[in-house]
Amino acid sequence: MRLIGAVLAALLWTACGGVPPAGDDGGDGRDSGPARDDAGLTDAGLTDAGLTDAGLTDAGAGNSDAGVTRTLVVLHYNDLHAHLVPHQVMLPLGGDGTLGMGTKVALRGGVARLKTLINRERAAADSSVLVNVGDTFHGGVEALYTQGEALAAPVNALGFEVGVPGNWDYAFGPNVTRSRYLGTATIGMQECIQLGISSGALGGRDGGSMTAFTRPGYPNLAANVTFKQSLNTAAGQPFLPATLLKDIDGVKVGFIGLSSDIVPRMHPMLACGLEFLGAAELAAGDSAGWMTKYTQLVSTHAAALKQQGAQVVLVLSELGIQKDFALANALASSTVDAFLSAHTHEASFTPLVSTSGAWVMEAGDDTYLGRLRFEVANGRVTRRDWTLLSVTMALPPDAAMQQLVDTARAPFLVSHPNLTIPGNTGAQLALTEPITTVIGTTPRALTRKHALDSSFNDFFTAALQAKAGTQLGMAPGFRFDSPIAVAGDIVEDGALANGQVTLEDAYRFFPVVYGMGTASITGTNLRAVVEEALTAVLTTAVPLQNGGWVEGFSGVSFDVDARAADGARVQAARLPGGAPLVGATAYSIAGCRRPFDDAGVLCSHSGFIGVTDLRHPDGGVVTNVEVLRDGLGRVGLSWGPALSDSSAQTWWPVSAWVQPLEGAK
């Protein structure tokens, strides 16, 4: 994979009606834990890192609100991934919030309709706060060709009040990350320079220049990211504030922000100059060490916020709901009230209730909005409920937001755009056609919504294998997805799908344009690659999970036992026709390449021999978008599942979770 410029409802109402957490009396839905002592409440309005909330007024000091019940609504949005307009999604056959065999395609999302939903929810609430967690400025064609700048005006117009950057928000490079979130691109860059990274790879719309980016109009938090020692930073200096204490109409809410812990694994360049808590433990396979660090971090900040008067403490986390649930279970009772998760794109229609009493929820992706409602009296939470709302086509688009969206998308819809990806990508692909251009028709439904094996990965790797003329194909395990229904399928509104794939659809499947490469690999090393990919997604040592979902493969099929031990899930590997994959034999393979990868690496995995770029006859590097387009034009391309599970593990949509919640067990 080549990281760009960075090396880079009607609404569904599913209320949980005061589901009692562990330790509650279970009778009237009221928490039975100890009341919080408001003695010594101060008019701070500060994070422990010194960020002030300029609009803060402390309306409820001391015990002046004794006996008063206040209701607060927290609107939780996550993982926009630069989706400005509605797009297709895959749902259970029975619709949102149901389980069972079968799926259907529906149209959801779009920030203009999201804005309408936000406005409606805020108007109905006496007090509310809107939070944005996880990947925001990266993921669609508009983001890719502007390094997220096209998203700035629409995102700021949504009215977020606090947020957390996701792993993909670092993917345009350290210059862009610093410029967007700090207002300057020069802080803590010494390590980047020492690593010998070219200016283009640092990011920036002018090939690595210090071009300014529009900053989010709301504070962003990251308690788990600090600077390394540098010429102008001290080791341990916060990259962003760790916490925010905000008075919301008399309810003091403490927010703890947790950004991603997998950025160094995506590419060390993206993390240069920054220290990500738990990254070393993740690399070393030290699950217990990771958990110790994060429980200490959250507990310390939660205690500090309560000391400052917080009556509600929320963790905004990009770690993913699997890790958040494990972390919530490891905390002491009543440490925090809830984790609002992002990263894993899981739609939580019912809150997870941890052993510490904290609720854990993820609001799916850009096509949902979560509503967490608290009742607070005498300085403590007395009731709470959660509802996940769908951003459906029944919502009228907000006119002002629609104008911002139209402006952002206009350069991509003209008849003859001439856009290039900023910076030094190593796999440049000019955009010379409108993104509405149809690039092909799929003979079968294409989706990535399966953590183990997906139809899109099966198709793409087969197309790559055919393009490269290799025995095998491989693709990264992205979660990015905008499914394409096959022609004749009935979508949610009763319309018939036409099976067409547009250029914009291609960029929804690929968050970055990356170059393709060829290599050889022994059967033994390939099995090791597959085991590594399976462990990253399915391990029961949940802190060590670091997907994405499982990578895609073609030209070989693997029988796996998802519930087997790490490193022992592959039960058999067979070539077409049934012959076994031979451990000592070297097989030709095509996969994704990233600049600055070490020799022997494809798709972030090592063990490959003779890695070289796959090039066009004119010498240009073949890209993923071009492979997809080529594959859609191939007649008789053969493709099918590469990984099949023989265990009793249940998978979405029979299970509520696309990625097993506590690992496959």
Pick out its properties.
disordered N terminus; 5'-nucleotidase,  domain 2; Purple Acid Phosphatase, chain A, domain 2; globular; 20% strand; six-stranded mixed sheet; 21% helix; five-stranded mixed sheet; 665 residues; 25 strands; alpha/beta; single chain
Please tell me what the overall shape is.
Answer: globular
- H/I helix tally: 14
Mean pLDDT: 88
Percent of residues in β-strands: 15-25%
Per DSSP E runs of 2 or more residues, the count of β-strands stands at: 25
The CATH architecture of one domain: 4-Layer Sandwich
Largest sheet: number of strands, sense, barrel closure: 6 strands, mixed
Secondary structure category: alpha/beta
Report the top-level CATH class of one domain. Answer: Alpha Beta
Q: Provide the CATH superfamily of one domain.
A: Metallo-dependent phosphatases
Fold-level CATH name of one domain: Purple Acid Phosphatase, chain A, domain 2
Low-pLDDT residue spans? 1-64, 206-210
- Calculate Rg over CA atoms: 24 Å
Architecture overview:
This protein is of the alpha/beta class and 665 residues long. Among the domains are: 69-128 and 220-390, Metallo-dependent phosphatases (Purple Acid Phosphatase, chain A, domain 2), CATH 3.60.21; 425-645, 5'-Nucleotidase, C-terminal domain (5'-nucleotidase,  domain 2). Helices cover 21% and strands 20% of the residues. It has 14 helices and 25 strands. It has helices at 111-124, 141-144, 152-157, 174-182, 190-194, 263-266, 279-284, 287-307, 321-330, 399-413, 455-468, 503-509, 523-538, 624-632; strands spanning 69-78, 87-92, 103-108, 128-133, 162-164, 225-227, 243-248, 251-258, 274-276, 312-317, 338-341, 352-353, 359-362, 368-377, 380-390, 438-441, 472-475, 500-502, 515-522, 552-554, 557-560, 570-574, 586-593, 609-613, 643-645. The protein has a 6-stranded mixed beta sheet, covered by helices on one side. Helix 9 links the parallel strand 10 (312-317) and strand 11. The protein starts with 68 loop residues before the first strand and ends in a 20-residue tail after the last strand. Residues 1-64 and 206-210 have low confidence and may be disordered.
